[in-house]
Amino acid sequence: MKKSTDTLRYLSTKTAWMSFVAGQTQSQIARELEMSQSKVHRLINHALEQGYVTIRIEGGSEELLDLENRLKQSFGLTRCTVASAGMSGRDDHEALLQSVGEAAGHYLSHLLEKKAITQIGVGMGETMSAAVAAMHAAQRSDLKIVSITGSLLRKLSANPLDVVMQMQRKTGGEAYFLPVPYLASSVEERESFQSYQSVQELMELARKSDIFVVGIGSIDAESNLARTQEISAQELNDLRAAGVVGDIAGSFYDIHGRIVETELGRKTVGMRGQELAGRRVLGMAAGLRKTQAVLGVLRSGLIDEIVLDEHLARAVLSEAPVSFGGTS
Predict the structure, then answer these.
(1) Can you tell me the distance from the alpha carbon of 20 to that of 65, in angstroms, rounded to the nearest whole number?
(2) Domain spans of the chain?
(3) Whole-angstrom distance, CA of residue 143 vs CA of residue 227
(4) Sign of dihedral through CA atoms 17, 314, 129, 1?
(5) pLDDT single digits (tens) 29-63
(6) Gap between the Cα atoms of 298 and 79, Å rounded
(7) What SS3 state is found at 285?
(8) What is any Pfam family matched here (predicted)?
(9) What is the DSSP letter of 222?
(10) Residue 35 φ/ψ, nearest 5 degrees
């Protein structure tokens, strides 16, 4: 009950802010939040009835809404959700992960309830797992859930197969995964895997997704790739030496958002991060250690929607003069 009440409070405050502060019309708000104009009207009325709107917007969300607006304007995003840290400290990773997961899970549930999305391309990561765990159960037998990278890791924690299967159980949809490793042992092995007709067919299916949902990976000992033992400490050091700050869908990039070609990146099986350009892509991240990774991917132009925690949002904005030029 508390979660639904908090969600109503957040949405009513957000629509009121967009209407009274940002000066958007209800039809503009409806398009941006992907809801009916009548629902926007009800949410604004709720904000008025509850006293969230006085001389300024009340309700504890005005700072989050300001962060969202600044990130959208700075990086040309179509949608941004900043999850409240509540009483969580800047280093309370588990609490921040849960907060971002709940916000992202609510958004994904909302998208599926609309039934405009019939296929989701799914990446990997602990934030992805938290988001899917927070999703509401939905009856969507028509939904296709497709892994966009190789689905096999050395450890099962936060891996693509696990995320796809979690979402399948929540929705009753059809799950598809690439039955090959996320990282091949060599470039030649990757090329061999991707020459298989079954893999090519699944990759072609993945490319047809209406939306891609991906975690934003950092380059440190706590990253998903390091914790699942996909890459070694030496390989992490080599990536950092090459200027890499993060990865998305198996592609590595620098702080300016430029793709960095590495031997490790050439071993990734599945879609390349560059293939996400121009598509609808939702990225998610939690924790300050993701600051450079998030800043780099926002500058890359490879994602147009993001969910992140408020500490991370402030850190990204504090480090970022507004300059982003896309991939190269």
Answers:
(1) 13
(2) 1-60, 62-319
(3) 31
(4) negative
(5) 998 998 998 999 899 888 888 887 764 444 457 88
(6) 12
(7) strand
(8) Sugar-bind
(9) T
(10) -140, 170
> How big is the chain by its Cα radius of gyration, in Å?
20
Q: How far apart are CA 225 and CA 240, in angstroms?
A: 14
Residue 270 predicted with pLDDT over 90? no
Give per-residue burial for 193-218: e unless 16+ CB within 10 Å, then b: bbeeeebeebbeebeebebbbbbbbb
Cα separations in angstroms, 128 against 1, 57, 213, 284: 24, 31, 8, 7
Has residue 321 got a pLDDT over 80?
A: no
| Alpha carbons 17 and 269: distance in angstroms, whole number | 43
Q: In what order do the strands lie in the sheet with 251-253?
A: 217-218, 246-248, 251-253
Nearest alpha carbon to residue 110 among 136, 134, 128? 136
Residues linked to residue 166 through DSSP beta bridges, in sequence order: none
- How many separate helices (H) and strands (E) can be counted in the chain? 13, 10
Q: Hey, what CATH class is 1-60 in? A: mainly alpha
The pLDDT of residue 279 = 94
What SS3 state is found at 208? coil
Dist CA 86 CA 38 (whole Å): 30
Q: Which residue has the higher pLDDT, 282 or 198?
A: 282
Beta strand pairing call for 174-181 and 246-248: unpaired
Question: Model confidence over 126-145: pLDDT tens digits?
Answer: 899 899 999 988 889 999 99
Backbone angles phi, psi at 79, to 5 degrees: -155, 140
- Measured distance CA(212)–CA(280) in Å, rounded: 6
In the 8-state DSSP scheme, what is residue 319?
H
Interatomic CA distance for residues 146 and 165, integer angstroms: 10
Crossing angle for the helix pair 2-20 and 26-33, to the nearest 10 degrees: 130
Query: Parallel, antiparallel, or unpaired for β 217-218 and 246-248?
Result: antiparallel
Residue pair 215/285 in contact (Cβ under 8 Å)? The answer is yes
Burial class (CB in 10 A: 0-12, 13-18, 19+), 52: buried
Supply 328's token pair: 């190269």
